[in-house]
User: What shape does this take?
Amino acid sequence: MRLVLFLPWWRAIIGRRAWIAVPVGALIAAVLALDPVLGPEDGFGTYLAYCSLLPLALLFRLGGAIDARRRDGLEIEEALRDPAGSLAPSAAILAAWSALAAGLAVCALPPLILSLAVEDFTTPALHPVHIKAQDTGAWTFDAGGAIPFGSALLLTFTWEQLPEAGAELHDGAGVLCPIQPGEIVRSPLRLEEARSGQFTRMVNEKARAAGAVLVRPLVRLEVPRPPLTAAPRLLGRQFMFAAPLLGLVLLLARRGRAGGALAALAAVALAGLLAFDPFEVPQLGKGPADLLARAVLALRAALPEVRGLAAVGRGFELRTGTSSPWMVTAWWLLGTLAVGFCFRWRKRP
Amino acid sequence: MSSAPILRCDGLALARGGKLLAEEFNLELVPGQRGLVLGANGSGKSTLALALCGLLPLKARVLERPRRIGLASQEPEFPLARRCGEYLDELAALAGARAVEARAQTDQALARFDLTSARSRPIGELSRGWRQRLNLARAWLGDPLLLILDEPQTALDPAGLATLERELATRTAGATLIVAPPGVGCDSLAPVVLRLRAAGVKA
Assistant: This one.
């Protein structure tokens, strides 16, 4: 890519104030989220949530840059001079991606610097987990989606009578955990269980005979908490999530002739659909609102599962990094296709 | 010099907003040829210019036109905050020129219309007349095979007009099509090849 094509897009997307605004913003976010006194408990997710404003802002900056170039007659010049129509979209997306990468790289610095000064988080996070089904001495749990490998299930039992020695917990694959009265049972999740987010545990006959009862309110998922030094990796995931959205803005604004702000809003709406846990709708009728809900659910189901790239905020560790490489590849393929559709391809006679 | 037409349109019809501006007509320009399309306001001159550039849909039985066309539009739009030189550098690069080549093309285009001193000036600082010169320099950039000039005399002073005439006269490799209303100073720039009227066309 020629620098002379790249730089105008880069300048238009970054703007003059970004050189100050992004580092200062990252610093303020770090103070608000990670400071031991000012920040919330487990503030790393909060810091990542602040950082996610940067990709959102860039969606609008890219839309604005496309609008400005259209206003300035540059789209006409592109059509006249570049019949294949590939140079300007390539320059635009490369500038947007590099601006995103540069901004997130700046955002990665405060946690890294802070990790040298403060004690990094080492304790795992605990999350409640839904019990989907229950049978005699067997329970099926549902974490609502994939969870990080390395997580474990913490179970507490009460007893009608003290069990004999040999009371054990099965995980359905033959792995056993001894159950000690008065102790929390920790059962690590296998890789396939973490990927599916659904897992079953059962107690053996001895425990069942002793009247083992699971204390449901105390069921917890123990999830490893990423340390501050993982900031580059976590912000890299934000890049992987937001980069295809920039391609979507380019497609809607250039090919679809939508206004830049509208294209950015559409990308934000799609990001929201992808980033949040899917909502459960028990029963849908045939009214207009139901049809809309069906359409949204169908769209959500058709899109790749990339929640693991966009996990931010409190409890982000439950979802971060859980997207499969296939889903991430599919998501990038969609983004690349969006950019590809911006090329005109046809040649004038 | 090859005599193969640079621009050839047979059975060309021109419409805007569902209204027929010009019935079927033929238009052909060979290398070194200049042509003038005259027409009153609203006769479809600018529409024709944009359509020939491929910026508006065009209906023709036979259509031949070069891949790269230089257009000096009637109401040029510019990124006012950018400098003349870097702006033209980008346009040259859009046509595939490497950095050094783009810079050379820019220098040549600016020199043609006495804009060398404005290379590092923001476009927004230029007067209307100088912007018109930049508009022409932009069209000439990279010496496209076909130049389409929509009322190119607009806002030019006598010196600018003389420069335009000189550049048109020395242009031998490509073809040039000028569209303008009669009597605005373009009549002497090229022989009339087409006369547009509001209700049709007369060649």
Summary: The mean pLDDT of chain A is 88.
